[in-house]
Amino acid sequence: MKKKKKTDLQQSIMEEKNDIETSTGDSKFTLLDVIRIIGGLLLLNAFLSWWFTSTGTWGYDGKWLDIRYLQFQLRRDYVNLTSDELKLYNGKNPKYPIYLAINGKVYDVTYGRDIYGPNGPYEFFSGRDSARAFVTGCFDKPDEFTHDLRGLDQEEAMHDITSWQRFFENHPHYWYAGIVTHKPIEKDIPSPCEHKKFPGYHVRNT
Ligand SMILES: *[C@@H]1O[C@H](CO)[C@@H](O)[C@H](O)[C@H]1NC(C)=O
After folding, report:
1. Structural domain contains residue 31
2. Which of 83, 100, 112, 186 is deepest in the core (most CB within 10 A)?
3. Predicted structure pTM score
4. How far is the CA of 116 from the centre of ligand 1 (A)?
5. Does a structural domain hold residue 58?
6. How far is residue 126 from each of residues 48, 51, 90, 105, 185, measured CA to CA in Å?
């Protein structure tokens, strides 16, 4: 009698154990499992990326990895500057981003500090709207660095300006940052310069 009771007890313990085993065995994915799988895939992705491209991002090195661009995309805080305010962003103050402008549109070129910052080969574009110089290409003539487009072939000018704007907008490291507004122009039209891109320019404007 006593023995039977014991086997009954053993039996019920066994059954309970089986119940526990089957209930855990066919349980659904837990959150932890999902995290493990995603983690594993990320690790595999990183490993393959390193293997094939020696980078963790399949060779991508553009502005979407730039923390400043991500913040800008998140906040969408486009600037609205006057030409005087724009001067502050010429790269002289390392705390400020570097901006250049083309016909009222401002571009963030901070990534290119070596090019657009102090002593860079194109530092003359920074902190101002040089729409005219972008059209004429006359970089050795200081009065070309203006948004003043008077006297130029307007169709040519707009064509050039649009394509330069597109260049900075679609650049892997630069982006459109907002607008700059100018006071009305009071100076004389800049004198014609030797037009580097369009040989006909000089003839048409004299
Ligand atoms: C930019 O600022 C000027 C002056 O503060 C304002 O008149 C204008 O509406 C603003 N433009 C935009 C697009 O916010």
Report:
1. yes
2. 100
3. 0.73
4. 27
5. no
6. 40, 40, 5, 13, 20
Residues 8 and 108 in one domain: no
Measured in Å, residue 139 CA sits from the centre of ligand 1 at: 31
Kindly give the distance from the C-alpha atom of residue 108 to the centroid of ligand 1, in angstroms, as a whole number. 19
**β-strands 99-102, 175-181 pairing:** unpaired
Q: What is the DSSP string of 90-112?
A: SSSSTTSPPEEEETTEEEE-GGG
CA of 101 from ligand 1 middle (Å) equals: 16
Task: Provide the domain limits for residue 157.
Answer: 63-204
pLDDT exceeds 50 at position 199: no
Query: Is 40 in the same domain as 68?
Result: no
pLDDT digits over 17-31, tens only?
666 555 555 567 789
**Contact, 117 vs 145, CB < 8 A?**
no
Q: Dihedral (C-alpha) 185, 191, 117, 129: value to the nearest 10 degrees?
A: 30
